[in-house]
Amino acid sequence: MTDAAEEVAPSASSAAGPALLEVSGLHAGYGPIEVLHGLDFTVQAGEMVVILGANGAGKTTTMLSLSGVLARRGSLVFDGHDISRASPDAIVAHGIAQVPQGRGTFTDLTVEDNLLVGAYLRKDPLADDLDRWYTTFPRLAERRTQKAGSLSGGEQQMLAIARALMSRPRLLLCDEPSQGLAPIIVQEMFRILQRLNEEDGTAVLLVEQNANLAMDIANRAYVLETGSIVASGDAASLRDDDSVRKAYLGY
To answer: Quick check: is 157 in a domain?
Structure first.
């Protein structure tokens, strides 16, 4: 089996200079229960990185700690700035936005008000951004005055992504965007994320259980098991490594 301490294959981006996000010795948990046991990983500018693992591996805990929602220990450096102790608001201001697991829309607010909430730290005009995401997600444009709670699951996921993008992040954190959605909606969602990454250069850190789909669009991948990274490397090499697939990816 692939040595957990080594990458399956070197990533092309690993030598691309200072990382946009560099995480070292990340510990986090809930009360006295530690879930993450000293994670080390990076995301380069413009890169798509996926974190894979079974339920309970610590994927969502990782995302919550990066966005400042969950207390953490360790070093988090974003674009050269130490954000290890930064609040959620400060992390958004630095250029990191999260699409949380389960959508997290404000169900009593309209679609448009949800989008405006995503831009609450901005002081510049928002009309162009609203137009862009309504064009990207036409169903949101059709439902802009509806309450978010009346939308389908797929529409709510679109809204959650668009709301996060209203802050114009340099790094988008996506936690299980495929959860509970029909396959055709999932494929559409992943195409949009891939286009955003390729055309805008927005870096994406994606947590996902659909390993096949995630590996198709990712540059690199990390595999989590019980709060530790057990494999990492470029996505194509991990996907093709039989021992990694059978042991950690379930296919």
So the answer is: no
Q: Is 144 helix (H, G, I), strand (E, B) or coil?
A: coil
* Amino acid identity for residue 141 in this structure: A
- The candidate with the shortest Cα–Cα distance to 101, out of 30, 48, 156, 49, is 156
The β-bridge partners of 203 are: 171
pLDDT in tens, 18-76: 899 999 999 999 999 999 999 999 999 999 999 998 888 999 999 999 999 999 999 99
Question: Residues 6 or more apart from 124 whose CB is under 8 A from it?
Answer: none
Residue 107 lies in a domain: no
pTM: 0.89
Per DSSP, the residues of 42-79 read EE-TT-EEEEE--TTSSHHHHHHHHTTSS-EEEEEEET
Here the CATH number for the domain that contains residue 11 is 3.40.50.300
Output DSSP code: residue 147.
B
Confirm whether 87 is domain-assigned.
yes
Tens-digit pLDDT profile for residues 156-178: 999 999 999 999 999 999 999 88
Determine the structural domain holding residue 220 and report its residue range: 1-93+205-251
Domains held by the chain: number: 1
Of 236, 115, 232, 239, nearest to 165 by C-alpha is 115
